[in-house]
Amino acid sequence: xxxxxxxxxxxxxxxxxxxxxxxxxxxxxxxxxxxxxxxxxxxxxxxxxxxxxxxxxxxxxxxxxxxxxxxxxxxxxxxxxxxxxxxxxxxxxxxxxxxxxxxxxxxxxxxxxxxxxxxxxxxxxxxxxxxxxxxxxxxxxxxxxxxxxxxxxxxxxxxxxxxxxxxxxxxxxxxxxxxxxxxxxxxxxxxxxxxxxxxxxxxxxxxxxxxxxxxxxxxxxxxxxxxxxxxxxxxxxxxxxxxxxxxxxxxxxxxxxxxxxxxxxxxxxxxxxxxxxxxxxxxxx
Length: 285
What we know:
Elements: H1 3-11, H2 14-20, H3 24-50, E1 51-55, E2 69-74, E3 106-110, E4 117-124, E5 129-133, E6 136-139, E7 142-143, E8 146-156, E9 170-172, E10 178-188, E11 194-198, E12 211-212, E13 217-221, E14 244-245, E15 249-259, H4 271-274
Antiparallel strand pairs: 1-2, 2-15, 3-4, 3-15, 4-13, 5-6, 5-12, 6-7, 8-10, 9-10, 10-11, 13-14
């Protein structure tokens, strides 16, 4: 037997192996398709039962939440209803595994009339009597302690300022930049939950009649007391929310996963990073 014949004998099995290779491709495609199906199911279960995402569109929850904050809200603490399910699935009235929020929770809910998403702080539970007198919150006849703390300082630009009628709050910082310096107060609810609020001036809803929260409803308020359309007035579409049915709860705000100051530009990719408020990312609510 020649050396050439010996080499030929060693190479003869190769075509058999090459021909068998394509037989694996249908199996690989099937496995990938099953992976995609499982991924979609996991995402749907996550959005349905665990968390939903929300971004802050207004100043009503300053100083805790700023325009440009992105957060996750946990769904399981309050149970589930058609308003907490994705794609606005109509599964009837009521809530499954319903649990009332605690005073002081920051909750996402659907507006009672137009069903748009809102975020406010839970102040009154069913049966509570709530009143505002001279900017002080009263719960069941007792004043909620409201202690002045250091001003809330928010960087801004001279052009943007601090908003209509708030030029007096604009200050120049040591580095020459501008900021808004807003009066800030610490409130402590009867259950011990504390949080900061802004109170810039006297507005109509600094004084309200005594309101008893109906059964199955909640009274919600924004932390930015002079710039929040909340339960201090009756519900109006695209505006004041009035008493919020417990059924309309979506979830409890949990933590921030991103925050941007709004200065990013699509055509300038580096601004995507400079606009991020890195110190806020990951913060609990």
